[in-house]
Amino acid sequence: MAFEVKMPQLGLTMEEGTVSKWIKHEGDAVKVGDVILEITTDKLTNEVASEAEGTLLKIVAQEGEQDGFEGCLSVPGLWGQVKRPMWVKVRAQDRHGSYFEREGSEMTARCFCHELAHLDGQLYTQLCDRLLTTEELDELLEEEGEA
Question: 36, 65, 90, 99 — which has fewest CB within 10 A?
Fold first, then answer.
């Protein structure tokens, strides 16, 4: 039976976490209590232990990715959990046609990716498994102790 490892809630104020390092790799045997990865938040880095025994089948969040909720004025009142890079570097043109580059991490990287996707005709709704209403998101965050 498959067991999904989800981003743990590492404190009452945690909004996002990043997989900073995978200790176990795809195909590795895992026992209950084995450290399988490290998660970094804005305040700490913590090891995550396996709650099940078996084999690590698939890694779906790579090192340097963040997983967080996004909403958009293009789709008012709906939210979805989206994976984005932890760091990005973008190249753009100003209103005079001159090129410039900017780097961003965490929320800035998320915003760059979200807005650049619009230029490709994509919405965050295409990147998440499930959309939540504001009420459903509030309930979920309350259940997880984030509200």
Answer: 99
- The one catalytic residue in 15, 47, 51, 115 is 115
Whether the CB-CB separation of 93 and 43 falls below 8 Å is answered with: no
Domain holding 102, by residue range, is 65-143
Cα–Cα distance, 16 to 109 (Å, whole number): 13
Residues 15 and 47 in one domain: yes
- Considering just the CA atoms, what is the radius of gyration of the chain in Å? 17
pTM: 0.58
pLDDT in tens, 12-51: 666 677 787 888 888 889 999 999 988 887 777 888 888 8
